[in-house]
Amino acid sequence: MVRPILRSHLPPRAKVALYKGYIRSRLTYIAPARYALCSTSQSKRTQAQKNITLRMIVGAGRYVLNDIIARDLRIEPVEEFIQHLAGRKYDFADQGPHEFLRNIAPMHGRSPNGRPLSRE
């Protein structure tokens, strides 16, 4: 559905805006709650989808590194974006007027089973 738009002759800035507004929101939907529970292969799959989309945006060849494409387009890695998104949501809940939402996910060193917590 989005592939023809990404391969069209739109300027790269418009394609990056499309990525940030539509595609990244689809990739990271409910991610602050779910991403900490994802397996390594699922998080790698999400990162791979991001890399494929960015390659289509710039029309990069196979020998251009994904990190260079993301750096040039000023797109942070999916994991950093999700951590930033989760931090903003928890900060908003902590500073909001509703007492029951404050400290909803307190900071702990590690969970008992060793998995990262949602604020990490």
Describe this structure in words.
The protein is an all-alpha fold. It has one domain (3-101). Helix content is 57%, strand content 0%. The protein has 6 helices and no strands. The protein has helices at 3-6, 12-27, 31-34, 40-58, 66-73, 78-94. Helix 2 (12-27) packs antiparallel against helix 4 (40-58) and helix 4 crosses helix 5. It is elongated and about 50 Å long. It starts with a helix and ends in a 26-residue tail after the last helix. The model has no long low-confidence stretch (mean pLDDT 77).
Proportion of helical residues = 55-70%
- Backbone shape: elongated
Portion in strands? under 5%
The SS-based structural class is: mainly alpha
Query: What is the terminal-to-terminal distance?
Result: 34 Å
Alpha plus pi helix count: 6
Total number of distinct structural domains = 1
Radius of gyration: 17 Å
Q: Low-confidence spans: pLDDT under 50, at least 5 residues?
A: none
Biggest pleated-sheet summary = none
Q: How confident is the prediction overall: mean pLDDT? A: 77
For this entry, what is the oligomeric state of its chains? single chain
Give helix and strand order, one letter per element, not per position: HHHHHH
Question: How many beta-strand runs?
Answer: 0
